């Protein structure tokens, strides 16, 4: 999925914070969750491709364009903070894994790459890859590994008695 976002209002917020003397953005946002929510609301979705509409289970493109807050989960917030820190530090690229949800409530594990373009990040391009199947397989493999380790410990315990 490909999204085009406008971070210029977020950029303005970050400039205001810097002018007010904020030095540690992570700590400042951690102590002010309402301001983090405000930053999320300031991101404007400009355009999305058809696959984004499908992936996020939107009825129409316009529905998803007005729903950035609706796809965030509490687990998404720390990743968004890191996006803001990247912008704060002047980086033009950011990549991470995150947990989002579709407009119908289904959980999505995604890998995304962002490119902040324009002087005030007014043209931010986001590439989103659904890695839910990979995460599910990793979780199943981890679970199986724990079972095998437990069986191995039990077998060793039985063989020594």
Binned strand content: 15-25%
Average pLDDT metric: 93
Enumerate the strands of the largest sheet in spatial order, edge to edge or round the barrel.
2-1-5-4-3
Q: What profile does the largest beta sheet have?
A: 5 strands, antiparallel
Distance between the termini: 58 Å
Low-confidence stretches: none
Radius of gyration based on Cα positions: 20 Å
Q: Figure out the total of helices.
A: 8
Level of helix content?
Answer: 40-55%
Helix-strand makeup class:
alpha+beta
Q: How does the overall form come out from the CA principal axes?
A: globular
Tally of DSSP β-strands: 5
What would the keywords be for this entry?
161 residues; five-stranded antiparallel β-sheet; globular
Overall description:
The chain is of the alpha+beta class and 161 residues long. Helices cover 52% and strands 24% of the residues. The protein contains 8 helices and 5 strands; from the N terminus they run E-H-H-H-E-H-H-H-H-E-E-E-H. The chain has helices at residues 8-19, 25-30, 33-42, 50-55, 61-65, 68-71, 77-88, 132-159, and strands at 2-6, 44-48, 93-101, 107-117, 123-130. The chain has a 5-stranded antiparallel β-sheet, with helices on both faces. It is globular and about 70 Å long. 17% of the residues are buried.
